[in-house]
Design a protein that fits this description.
alpha+beta, Immunoglobulin-like, 2 domains, six-stranded antiparallel β-sheet, four-stranded antiparallel β-sheet, 10 strands, globular, binds calcium ion
Length: 230
């Protein structure tokens, strides 16, 4: 009887130890959860091309998600965005990816003008991606891929990420520069397919319906400023 009591006592001790370990794990988890910081950023994108930029598709995410990547094939949604400025499919794709905190669409940007939008992030979801089509191209776009957002704020006015951004070729549509396939020339729908990885855009060649002098954009297609505001 005494032995049985002792056995129960040992069991109780194990249960108490297990309970203490579980409580410790839960407490550690709670500490980690509490350590997540909410962050808010203001993003301004300036159109540096002589023609329009279509509405931006953007998202805030962790290291798992990408909207597009240089050197990789464009997704179906990104191909549609780059070929025709269509945002619905790209936004849907991005919204459903693992690690995405939130995603959205801005207004379009006229030449020389800008769009400003606010994004919320956390210390765990602190990367920004976006893309916008250059309307006077076949499948040219500009944007950021998984840009890490700054966490320190030196001052509200002085600290920001500022960056010039080139244009990329989505590798989905041949660059025929034809009025039958370039949206800014009145085309609806898309031109002939091509299939290569996303790469830096080689610019307007001229000789068809686009002119390098009128539609070319030089080294950069956009300028972005990212400022933490909270
Ligand atoms: Ca192309």
């Amino acid at each position: 009887m005494q032995r049985a009591t002792s056995f129960v006592g040992e069991d109780m001790k194990r249960i108490l130890i297990a309970g203490a370990v579980t409580a410790g794990v839960l407490a550690a988890g709670a500490t980690q959860a509490a350590a997540v910081t909410n962050l808010t950023y203001r993003v301004t994108v300036v159109n540096r091309t002589p023609d329009g930029l279509t509405p931006l598709v953007y998202g805030v995410h962790d290291q798992r998600a990408h909207l597009w990547q240089k050197g990789r094939r464009a997704s179906a949604g990104m191909a549609l965005l780059a070929r025709d400025g269509a945002t619905t499919r790209a936004l849907g794709e991005l919204s459903r990816k693992r690690g995405v905190l939130h995603a959205g669409v801005t207004d379009e940007i006229a030449p020389g003008r800008s769009v400003t939008f606010t994004v919320r992030a956390t210390s765990r979801h602190r990367r920004l991606s976006w893309a916008s089509m250059l309307k006077c191209t076949n499948d040219g776009f500009t944007g950021l891929d998984s840009r890490v957002l700054p966490i320190r704020v030196k001052s509200r006015t002085r600290f920001a990420v500022r960056r010039n951004i080139p244009a990329y070729d989505a590798g989905a549509e041949a660059n025929d520069e034809s009025a039958s396939s370039v949206p800014c020339l009145g085309a609806h729908g898309v031109g002939a397919d091509e299939a290569h990885d996303i790469r830096k855009h080689r610019g307007i060649r001229g000789g068809a319906d686009l002119s390098r002098a009128r539609h070319g954009w030089g080294a950069y297609a956009a300028h972005v400023t990212i400022r933490r505001i909270r």
